[in-house]
From TrEMBL, chains A, B:
PROSITE patterns: HTH_RRF2_2 (PS51197). This is Rrf2 family transcriptional regulator. Keywords: DNA-binding. It comes from the Bacteria. It comes from Flavobacterium agrisoli. GO terms for molecular function: DNA binding; DNA-binding transcription factor activity.
Length: 137, 137
DNA sequence: ATAAATTCTATAATATTAGTAGGGTATTGA
DNA sequence: TCAATACCCTACTAATATTATAGAATTTAT
């Protein structure tokens, strides 16, 4: 399941994607428009900024805006940024790989292969869903 | 990601599936064979019993054994039993559906459709992985 | 200068997870 | 019958993660 953070991040990105080109959105606008607690959203937007999905302008008249095309932001990326691995165990993960305790002794746990198949299918599906595809429902 | 409980449940089921027909396994055997804390495993086996994957015999010479074919126990079922919904949000779930707070006001949140597509693909993949398929790696 | 906005760090409240403890109940076999 | 063995059940605890909130520092437009 998605964390609140990941869900809020998606809602915030959807909000930004729906604005006119070159429009800058203040945090408070996004918070009210997408029903997100403002102070919590601040942290989320900073995370999105550090990961280069959005950029910001400080000070009066400042705010946030997309710097990555809404067609190129996938659900897989947002999931990984806020919730980590897509695979069901670390030993089956591409981006967050680590051997599980049992893998060490048995070299490979029995679960790994099956979980990698599931990861591949889930990842493919998640890469197919973009902010743009969500905006036009 | 899978909880420890779900992972241990899978390991325990794998252990049982590897035993000879009609063999009864004591909790302590499974715990040592699959590297699972014994008292924690007790709870997990009881959950598996209540969900009719295994049955048990009490008293001396007692233990646990599979009552569902290893070909018919899927990863999807174990995930749902221990970790709940497969979908990324409750509003996109088949077995654990509930409207999210935003769905109420907007009737449907923008995320729902995309998340249902992901759920469908993940579910298909998870139903394809059985205890039997994991035993023969 | 002042107001408005982002940025940053710390902290609090809550929920979940992972595991432990300890006794109760059923069955076997001497 | 009685003791040993093994499942059954509930409660509790410790650690961790999640979901925020608070408050001050910094930047920018006017």
């Amino acid at each position: 399941m998605l964390s609140q953070k990941a869900k809020y991040a998606l809602k915030a990105l959807l909000y930004l994607a729906e604005q006119e080109e070159n429009h800058i959105s203040r945090t408070i606008e996004i918070a009210e428009g997408a029903h997100i607690p403002k102070k919590f959203l601040e942290q989320i937007l900073l995370d999105l900024k550090r990961a280069r999905f959005v950029s910001s302008k400080q000070g009066k008249m400042g705010g946030y805006y997309l710097i990555k095309s809404k067609h190129d932001i996938t659900l897989a990326e947002i999931h990984r940024l806020f919730d980590g691995a897509i695979a069901l165990l670390p030993c089956a993960s591409l981006n967050f790989y680590e051997p599980c305790s049992d893998c060490k002794t048995e070299n490979e746990c029995n679960l790994r292969h099956g979980l990698m198949m599931i990861r591949d299918e889930t990842l493919k599906a998640m890469q197919n869903i973009t902010i743009a595809s969500l905006v036009d429902k």
